[in-house]
Design brief:
The protein has 786 residues and is mainly beta. Strand 30 and strand 31 form a beta hairpin. The radius of gyration is 30 Å and the shape is globular. The termini are far apart. The N terminus is likely disordered.
């Protein structure tokens, strides 16, 4: 029985190369003619050609007992391996994706209405008969986004699994042999959302147990439907708890544990995390993790829907399945990955003038992808699909579908492959004018890493530094405590004296800063941060954008230059809008973190970022926020049934400038369940005594006024025009509840103190009373500061 090494890699890939045949080259601006030094590499042996198959018609190609079958846009065809002729055809309009089953059959989903329509049919084609074994219309459509459609169809030993569209998904199950519909796996038992992923062997489901945080993670055997284990996870977004089954044996899941998103090797009996695999991911990026299986003791994954399919994407990475350590990443630097051969070795096709004879085919070692064999070339000007099927590399070209045989041994010829991806090459910059270096200039390579010190990371409130670091130069957490986002991003540039410009390295850095500061910082929250303003007394020059909030949102963007080194830091803190329990990182901590991170990076190059010349920040009239829970207990009791308040002081606040309280039910979950329905009843108060900014030079009261303006603008995006409130503070606005399920919010200020109040009681549809309760809490919260 033949087994396809890579079941479906329908490349969104265009490799434009020059061929040695007159008239065989498509005119394309991306074509790079080979140089005189380009090596001559012998062509791969052509096994067969199917000229009747169009270049852009192929969905996937799989091996069969008698040869090869190709799933096309309009059906499935069998191909004679000797001649390339079609031996049979099964029509199916709008094929979404297809997979080879273990019994040699071909499973596919299709719309029966043409392309770009939802996939509503699933069926199995028997290649031996050249006909349908069975097909059936699904009760719900699967996702018609191509990349998700590929992941939505999975095949086990005896069962076909289809994941239906998007957020509230279920797993439809069918008997592979008969097509009999089996019991559907529907994890949405609470009404709070659900998510399903499968690899054909296993089905992982997540279902929200309440409105925001508790999620039930369950693993089932795909063939039998039997539950293997289940456990409760504290997580804000249910799809991140099980975003991909990377491997069934051993069990590796792309998952999120208390806001830390990693691939984990799990205990197969309990589902408990055992070993982290690879680096942490940022935000929702695990959702785009694509597993290519376990090969030679390593899990191979691609990040993003287009990786590793795009030319020179560097999207593949491999991690040891026992230790979690990285074996390699950023592969391939050039060309496109097309599959694994029969001995689990990656195969890559590369163009761009690397040879004088066509697109280059290389085979790489799993231990070290820099160790590779040159297998040969394929004559083609452009192709839109390529994959490895057993010992063949199959390419869809303008001449039809062409299969080339992969040799056992490589050729005795030297070809240098790209050592960096196209974006890395772009960042490499211009050639340096070596004659214009000055004695005090920092040379490239003087800074080893963008990583700040552990002291800086801890001071920012980042936890679990014992876990693998996040990839790149960004640190992101959204739990511990629940609902609080901390986001830190650091970058640096060492500028060289550019050739043919007459500038020194320092002048090049000055020009770089001038260009960077003109760009308005990109805000991640409801309000755009202000433009960069000059910072006096920091480095040779510095600029900052400061946006702070009342414990709900804030961000700081710092741009600083010392000699020819430019460092950019962005620090952000936010209390999640969907979780009423979080208090965020106060503005002065964001500012101190940005300065500390820049100091850490510059210190690696022996540069001292002297902060002493910075002016002392204005402390403000109020320097410490008063505790809230006990002081406002009576007012809160009028909104929420008697319950102990949950302290909401910011987790990182050494000056104790924030205070707050949440009144809800149970252990802090915001859901009341009366047996018939679930609804919310809670109140929350946040107080922030704003400290002045050393970076912007604004006082605490000025920043508090900015806070009020920013919050008004931000909330006005989501709510109707706010109503002014009298007798609350210097400024106060009510954002009224517009329906039974919505919150009433009040934002108010006295001096440098800002208060935000949120009230919701979905059991009481009296919206006027809900609005008045929020106003009363705001008055009481600000009373001590008036």
């Amino acid at each position: 029985m033949h087994r396809t090494r890579l079941v479906t890699l329908a490349l969104a890939l265009v490799l434009v190369v020059a061929t040695g045949c007159s008239g065989a080259v498509d005119e394309d601006a991306g074509t790079q003619p080979p140089t005189e030094e380009a090596p001559v590499v012998a062509a791969l042996e052509t096994a067969w050609t199917a000229p009747s198959i169009g270049q852009h018609d192929v969905v996937t190609v799989v091996a069969t007992d008698d040869g090869v079958a190709a799933a096309l846009d309009d059906g499935v065809v069998g191909i004679d391996p000797a001649t390339g002729d079609r031996t049979w055809r099964v029509p199916a309009r709008g094929v979404c994706t297809a997979r080879e089953a273990g019994d040699g059959s071909i499973v596919l989903t299709y719309s029966d209405r043409g392309p770009n329509t939802p996939c509503r049919w699933v069926g199995v084609v028997d290649p031996a008969a050249g006909a349908w074994r069975w097909r059936t219309r699904m009760p719900e459509p699967m996702d018609d986004i191509p990349e998700r459609a590929e992941a939505a169809l999975q095949v086990g030993d005896t069962t076909v699994t289809v994941i239906t569209a998007c957020c509230y998904s279920v797993a439809l199950r069918y008997d592979l042999r008969t097509g009999r519909e089996l019991r559907t796996v529907d994890p949405d038992v609470t009404g709070w959302g659900a998510w399903v992923v499968s690899d054909g062997q296993l089905i992982a489901t997540t279902s929200g147990l309440d409105r925001h945080s508790r999620v039930r993670l369950t693993m089932r055997d795909a063939d039998s439907g039997r539950r293997l284990w289940s456990r409760t996870v504290v997580e804000l977004v249910e799809e991140n708890v099980a975003s991909a089954i990377v491997s069934a044996d051993p069990l590796v899941l792309a998952t999120s544990e208390r806001g830390h998103q990693l691939m984990w090797r799990l205990d197969e009996r309990t589902g408990e995390p055992l070993t982290p695999i690879g680096p942490q991911s940022i935000d929702h990026s695990l959702f785009a993790t694509r597993s290519l299986g376990v090969h030679d003791g390593a899990v191979v994954v691609a990040r993003g829907f287009q990786s590793p399919l795009a030319t020179g994407s560097g999207g593949l990475a491999a991690y040891d399945v026992e230790t979690g350590a990285e074996r390699w990443s950023g592969f391939p630097a050039g060309g496109g990955f097309v599959g694994f051969d029969t001995e689990d070795r990656p195969v890559v096709l590369s163009g761009g003038g690397l040879t004088s004879t066509g697109a280059l085919v290389t085979r790489h070692s799993m231990d070290d992808v820099e160790d590779y064999d040159v297998l040969g070339t394929v004559e083609t000007s452009a192709f839109a699909f390529a994959t490895v099927v057993d010992d063949l590399v199959v390419v869809a070209t303008g001449a039809g579908l062409v299969a080339h045989r992969l040799p056992d041994e490589g050729q005795d010829v030297e070809v240098d492959l790209p050592s960096s991806t196209w974006d890395q090459q772009l960042l490499a910059g211009q050639q340096a004018d070596e004659s214009r270096w000055e004695d005090d200039d920092v040379r490239p390579g003087a800074i080893d890493t963008c990583h700040p010190s552990r002291t800086t990371l801890r001071a920012f409130g980042l936890h679990r530094l014992d876990l693998p670091a996040q990839a790149g130069c960004r640190w992101f957490e959204r739990q511990e405590p629940l609902g609080v986002t901390r986001d830190l991003e650091v970058g640096y540039r060492i500028l060289s004296p550019p050739a043919d410009s007459g500038m020194t390295a320092v002048e090049a850095a000055q020009a770089d800063v001038e260009q960077a500061r003109e760009k308005r910082p990109y805000g991640a929250g409801p309000v755009d941060p202000p433009r960069h303003r000059p910072v006096r007394g920091l480095g040779d020059e510095a600029y900052a954008s400061v946006l702070t909030g009342p414990g709900a949102y804030g961000e700081v963007h710092l741009l600083v230059r010392v000699r020819n080194v430019v460092v950019e830091v962005s620090a952000r803190g936010e209390a999640d809008a969907t979780d009423v329990r979080g208090a965020s990182v106060p503005g002065y901590v964001l500012e101190d973190t940005a300065v500390a991170a820049a100091t850490d990076v510059l210190a690696q190059a022996g540069l001292d970022l002297d902060v002493d010349p910075l002016p002392a920040p204005d402390p403000g009239a109020v320097t410490r926020a008063r505790p809230v829970c006990r002081a406002l207990a009576a007012e809160a009791r009028a909104v929420v049934e008697p319950t102990r308040g949950l302290d909401q002081r910011a987790p990182v606040d050494p000056e104790r400038r924030t205070a707050g309280c949440y009144w809800g039910v149970g252990d802090g979950a915001i859901v009341v369940d009366d047996g018939e329905r679930q609804y919310s009843r809670y109140a929350k108060v946040g107080v922030h005594a704003v400290r002045g900014s050393a970076l912007s030079g604004r006082t605490g009261e000025q920043l508090a006024e900015d806070v009020f303006t920013d919050l008004r603008a931000g909330h006005s995006f989501y709510y109707e025009k706010p109503r002014p409130l009298d007798d609350v503070g210097d400024q106060a606005l009510l954002f009224p509840a517009l329906g039974w399920s919505e919150e009433a919010k009040v934002v108010a200020r006295v001096g440098n103190v800002v208060v935000q109040v949120t009230v919701n009681d979905q059991a009481d549809e009296d919206l006027a009373a809900r609005n008045e309760a929020a106003a009363a809490l705001a008055r009481a919260a600000l009373a001590p500061y008036r």
